[in-house]
Amino acid sequence: MMLVANPISGVAVPPEFLPWHWGAIGQWFPPGASGTLLRDVSYFPAADAGAAWLALGLWAGVGALLSLAGHVRSAAGPANAATAVGH
Q1: b/e string for 26-54 if b means 16 or more Cβ within 10 A?
Q2: Interhelix angle for 50-85 vs 30-43, to 10°?
Q3: Per-residue pLDDT at 13
Q4: What is the largest CA-CA distance in the chain?
Q5: Other C-beta atoms lying within 10 Å of the C-beta of residue 8
Q6: Do the Cβ atoms of 27 and 8 come closer than 8 Å?
Q7: Which H or E element spans position 3?
Q8: According to the model, what pLDDT value does residue 38 have?
Q9: Measuring CA to CA, which of 7, 11, 42, 82 is 20 to 30 A from 17?
Q10: pLDDT number for residue 15
């Protein structure tokens, strides 16, 4: 994520200055969405920040689901690992 999302996030330079559609794509990654949200809330309070909130909410939701799936998988793991080894 760091190697891909940071250069195309549009935080250091405006997303419009990035080539092709990389600026628009970078706004859907957490660094771009959080930078845009911070900039919009700080300097342009009347600006619509819905897309940035949506992107960050989706990443948080996906992270929570993956964390829950990992917990469920590891909770059931030791019983399956013992039978797979042959004990």
Answers
A1: bbbbbbbbbbbbebbeeeeeeeebeebee
A2: 150
A3: 86
A4: 64
A5: 22
A6: no
A7: helix 2-5
A8: 94
A9: 42
A10: 84
According to the model, what pLDDT value does residue 82 have?
53
CA distance 18 to 78: 48
CA distance 59 to 15: 20
Amino acid in the structure at residue 81: A
CB of 42 closer than 8 Å to CB of 57: no
Q: Average pLDDT by consecutive 10-residue portion of the chain (87 residues)?
A: 84 86 91 93 92 96 96 76 56
Structure tokens at 86: 């042959």
C-alpha distances (whole Å) from 73 to each of 61, 69, 83 are 18, 6, 15
